[in-house]
Amino acid sequence: MPTPLSTPQSRRNFLLTGATAATALSLAATPARAAHRPRRPFGRYGSPSARLTPGTLYVHPHGAGDFTGVQAAVTAATGTGRTLVIAPGTYRETVSVDADRTGMTWLGASEDPRDVVIVYDNAAGTPKPDGSGTYGTSGSATTTVRPDGFTARWITFANDWLRTDLPGTSGTQAVALKVQGDRSAFTHCRFLGHQDTLYADSRSLDAFARQYFAHCYAEGDVDFVFGRATAVFDRCHFRTLVRPDLTAAPYGFVFAPSTAGANPRGYLVTRSRISSEAPDGYYKLARPWVPSSDTTARPMLTVRETRLGAGVDAVAPYTNMASGHPWQDQRFAEYRNTGPGAVITVPGNRPQLTRAEAASHTREAYLGDWRPYARHR
Length: 377
Description:
Layout: H1 8-17, H2 19-25, E1 46-47, E2 50-51, E3 56-59, H3 70-76, E4 83-86, E5 89-92, E6 95-97, E7 105-108, E8 116-120, H4 136-139, E9 143-145, E10 151-153, E11 156-159, E12 177-179, E13 184-187, E14 190-192, E15 198-200, E16 210-214, E17 217-220, E18 222-227, E19 230-234, E20 237-240, E21 252-257, E22 267-270, E23 273-276, E24 283-286, E25 300-304, E26 307-308, E27 331-335, H5 355-358, H6 363-367
Parallel strand pairs: 3-4, 4-7, 5-8, 6-9, 7-10, 8-11, 9-12, 10-13, 11-14, 12-15, 13-16, 14-17, 15-18, 16-19, 17-20, 18-21, 19-22, 20-23, 21-24, 22-25, 23-26, 25-27
Antiparallel strand pairs: 1-2
């Protein structure tokens, strides 16, 4: 049966209410220290009168910081290695970070991702205010991050657009976060949306951007983790949603990688879990995305040592996005997964790595000389 969150308006309310609703549902892994909320708006990270570093800027929705919005702080944070400390609040705005802001860090001041929410409601089919057309998938992103060396901790990135906002539209993609830079790390973050929630991508077809997501939570329905980055999802939680607009399976797909054919590393999901609001077997684990901009793409996804809940179709977990690019020709594999969605009933539908092959599908192998896991716990 659908949960109360399956109704459109309650889903939007959930995205906005943050801490209260999410605490009751236990949807996100949260550091133990978050139970002891700091009284100061910026926690242990200083203040405008006592800066953590000279390059630190403070964001507070009610004026206790340097800026009341995240985009204003990003615009002011010129140069490299700048830090934004963001106080608890819901920041309803779109944010775009230029590629020259290398080495930037965003910190949720309370160290609880439910407290700091960056949210907007553009979709691919949303008309632009200037009448020049619609936003498209990339343009729908609430937050777009282009620079190398970006780090975010304890932040929620959300897109609360609902299909009921534009009934009948074909542009239902609504991105919460698009990240393109190399060495981009997200720890204890949440990504909330429906279709195309988390766009883990690169700045160009020939750029092999490495990205690391640890202790994160992502939810959605159609292709809600997608793109061409080399992305490692370490101890993350993915949750599939009910589709009140559909009456039959499949409701959607968790992953839709579009890895460049020349890239030896695509998406790696390790020590994670996939749960569902939907009926058993109503979701596919993945389908390959071969975009028109790169018809030579050869999508790659490895899911290992991960618990696949009953929402995943165990008989046929993979499907095609386009008949000309069957999933069997792509680079999909699993290794030592558990849970009802991981039961192998048709071996031909569940490609498995050997132990020797699995040795090259680790976070160390995917990320190379970049080791964010050594400091982001």
